[in-house]
Design brief:
- The protein is of the alpha/beta class.
- The protein has one domain: Ribonuclease Z/Hydroxyacylglutathione hydrolase-like (Metallo-beta-lactamase, Chain A), CATH 3.60.15.10.
- The chain has a 7-stranded mixed β-sheet with strand order 1-2-3-4-5-6-7. It has a 6-stranded mixed β-sheet with strand order 8-9-10-11-12-13.
- Helix 7 runs antiparallel to helix 8.
- The longest helix has 12 residues.
- The radius of gyration is 17 Å and the shape is globular.
- The relative contact order is 0.15.
- The protein binds zinc ion (2 copies).
- The site of one zinc ion (ZN) has 6 residues, from loops.
Length: 241
């Protein structure tokens, strides 16, 4: 498993016919205070838990799982990770936490057609993703966790309550599905999405000084050009009004 930076490990997703989100493990190993960012698709939890334990991490060192958002390709294997890391709290933005605690499927699947396809594929009933949220995030928080500083940035648009995590020392951004490498951005046609909010969120991210971009899918970027997010936002602007 590649170490992206001291205190940031990258466990690549294993896409199949549905994408599986990447997982990032954040926190300095010696701190005993580690956080998992996102989980992944249904069935994709055990190899990730295994990869984490192979680093020599003790299960009780995983203090929390922080969700960038609650789409199926990020939350599908949350229960599998929770089984491996039973002491981990669940941190989610308040807007999606409300839906998650009710077992509202709309925020998970995004659209009816995808829901029926996945329910059939994975043998899932309604409200299969109902979780108790331990901490509701709003955006604007700064956490000192695992010997690092992480800011929470509220970036709705791809989903209702999307968040990014930003580490200002090494300039690391974990934006979920809001922006990717190759000038790509997240889709904005699903339940809870909003094109103009996505535009504002990209503008918010463009103000950050980012050197390492760790998105939810596809390539990660090191040595991100100074205007990369700004240019990506500009490119997509005509579609986001
Ligand atoms: Zn998503
Ligand atoms: Zn995703």
């Amino acid at each position: 498993m590649p170490q992206v930076y001291k205190g940031v490990q990258f466990i690549p997703g294993q896409d199949e016919f549905i994408p599986d989100s990447h997982v990032y493990l954040i926190g300095n190993p010696e701190s005993g205070d580690l956080s998992i960012v996102d989980a992944g698709l249904t069935g994709k939890g055990s190899y990730k838990a295994h990869a984490i334990l192979e680093l020599g991490v003790r299960p009780e060192d995983i203090k929390r799982i922080i969700m960038t958002h609650t789409h199926l390709d990020h939350i599908g294997c949350l229960a599998e990770l929770q089984k491996n890391f039973p002491e981990a709290e669940l941190w989610v933005h308040s807007l999606e936490a409300d839906l998650l605690e009710k077992g509202d499927d709309r925020a998970v699947y995004g659209m009816e057609m995808f829901k029926s396809m996945c329910q059939m594929q994975f043998g899932l009933g309604n409200s299969a993703f109902k979780f108790k949220v331990d901490r509701r995030l709003e955006g604007g928080e700064t956490f000192e966790i695992g010997g690092m500083i992480w800011d929470v940035v509220f970036i709705p648009g791809h989903s209702m309550g999307g968040i990014a995590l930003y580490e200002p020392v090494a300039k690391i951004l974990i934006p979920g599905d809001v922006i990717y490498a190759d000038y790509a951005i997240g889709r904005f046609d699903l339940y809870g999405a909003d094109a103009s909010r996505l535009k504002d969120s990209l503008d918010r991210l463009a103000k950050l000084d980012v050197d390492i971009l760790l998105p939810g899918h596809n390539q990660i970027m090191k040595g991100v050009p100074a205007d990369y997010i700004r240019r990506t936002a500009k490119m997509w602007e005509p579609y986001l009004t």
